[in-house]
Amino acid sequence: MTKAILPRTNQTGANEWSDVESNDAALAKVINGELDNENIAKAAGITREKLASDAKGIVGTWYTPKIINTEESRTNTAFGTMPTADEITGVVIPENGLVVIGYRAVAKSTVEAAGTFAAFLGSNQIKAGVVAGSPEVRQVNLTGTEFKPIGMTASGPAAGNGAYSGDVTTGQLLIPTLSSSPLAVVFAAPGTYSVSMQFKASSGAVTVKERKLWVAVLGG
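User: That's the sequence. What structure does it adopt?
Assistant: Structure tokens below.
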């Protein structure tokens, strides 16, 4: 929008009143229907509290995804990241915020059912509440020795079954299996965390490739 040039002072003498009238008319025109984002100074510092109660959007932060195509392996019997970590650091969770995690990869065990993967928030393995008892850690065992899709679901890590030929690039659902729902939503105490996918192998090695990790925070 072209901004009005004010004040207008091209009249003199008795005709100066026309400048006052034109200035008032120009201001009224902008305020009554033409006030837009370009007319608000970036330094105005207008906060959400000053907006209408129904002018609410989803407030959050999108972190740069971690994309790793390299095939890597790990032989340790304790959880840890691959040499190139599936990890996003500096994730800030505000009071009452939520972390949304998406993950997609292709993995296998060199020994039948020896490989396991799980999601971590900082140094803590992500847990889920159960019907009875305390929340329990969520992880998935990689059965067989062939490559299969793995990822995060609404209930935690999951893995597909049987030999897998690989993802496509023209559009594919994020779910690792047809019986799962994509994305894990996690709550935690406010603070700054890392989000990582970690692997272990009770025997042999666990190998992973074509890795994609997404993290977003809602709230704040």
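Residues 105 and 211 are 4 Å apart (CA to CA).
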